């Protein structure tokens, strides 16, 4: 079957080719009803944009780069699902790069993306990235960039993030409301935006409940699988020792859970535990894990929509700003509340 063209759609609907083209690009110039008719006709005729023709027509490759720390990470895999859904619907291919949490790999990924002539970049910074000069240089050369999840204020780009402060506040406040007073916080590198925001939420909840902030209860680390055990040992050796742990990620929570169980510390009888992400296995752990849920797919959808608006220079493209998506909290056995209870945070 010969592929349908813009002309075929225009002929079918008795409208101009330029109107069809603008409708498929989701242009603000075309009304919603015309867009709907064009989209339905395109689907019915099995229309697919020709990337080679588009590339020859102009400088656009109709492809974007998505740079993330790790694809195997549940949060980023869900975000990528949201990104691909929107990008493909708007006629763009998605090239995925992973930094494996290293600055050097991030720089190399961006070089490769430029070599492939992508139209724009979506990026979540690696845990090693404190210097963003490589991204600033790309921006100076006209590359559209949108940051999501782990972002830098040094870059004047749109940023799409979860409500890290609100989620951390809710998790800490919940632990306090259930009687915990010595709440340890395990987190990652201090220069990352998510680290700073979640630490700020943790501190604010302590302050609101009249509890002092104790630096000795906070530990900064990486995502190393063997790192959590020694940190738990350090914290449990304190006097008085912690009666709860709030971790800045579920990966840290898993390490914390394993370390506490290996040391025969009962959860939640002796120590409560709350994570941040909501891994798919969170409700299957023993005990099941209370956690703050990041709306990963929604963040991915919003971030790519902002990027494509920048690429297409839409009249309604938003100026650089931070879009904050609300989080929710799932309370399970690890913090002594009934399984399946949900709270907005």
From TrEMBL:
Tell me the keywords, alphabetical order. DNA-binding, Transcription, Transcription regulation
The protein's matches in CDD domains, at most eight in alphabetical order, are given as:
HTH_LacI (cd01392), PBP1_LacI_sugar_binding-like (cd06267)
Q: Which InterPro entries match?
A: HTH_LacI, LacI/GalR-like_sensor, Lambda_DNA-bd_dom_sf, Peripla_BP_I
Question: Which residue intervals define the domain HTH lacI-type in the entry?
Answer: 4-58
Care to name a GO molecular-function term for this sequence?
transcription cis-regulatory region binding
Q: Which Pfam families match?
A: LacI, Peripla_BP_3
PANTHER family for the chain: HTH-TYPE TRANSCRIPTIONAL REGULATOR GALS (PTHR30146:SF109), LACI-RELATED TRANSCRIPTIONAL REPRESSOR (PTHR30146)
Protein name, UniProt field = Substrate-binding domain-containing protein
Query: Which species?
Result: Hymenobacter ginkgonis
State the organism's lineage.
Bacteria, Pseudomonadati, Bacteroidota, Cytophagia, Cytophagales
